[in-house]
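Chain A, query sequence.
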Amino acid sequence: HLTIGQALATEGIAPLFSPNTQNEVARTLVNEIEKVPPGEKISGAIQHFTHFSIARELVRACERGVIVQLIMDDDILTGESEVPEVAEFYENNLNNSCIDIRFMQTNAADRQMMHNKFLVLG
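Chain A, predicted structure.
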């Protein structure tokens, strides 16, 4: 059984499961995002995104020349999200940033849902 640090060092990939009590996932993601050099890419899909330190680090990466692309659930824009603070978080922390954010149209009634939460760095 490898620790997250060992997995990243030896395999270049590690699953991170959240929530966790030590905030290890957020610290690991922020640390790894900081390491992505300008010109490289960070891509991901995040249904409901409300973590300030990860958002701040993604914006910093973009500002230093990393290509950051995210797909998010359109419920953030339509107000249909079951996470009430997600629209305000998006507006205050991600909207009008240099991150290329695209929205996937979803419809829970028709079982057309996007529930992903992943980032691919580098």
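The chain has a mean pLDDT of 88. The chain is about 35% helix and 20% strand.
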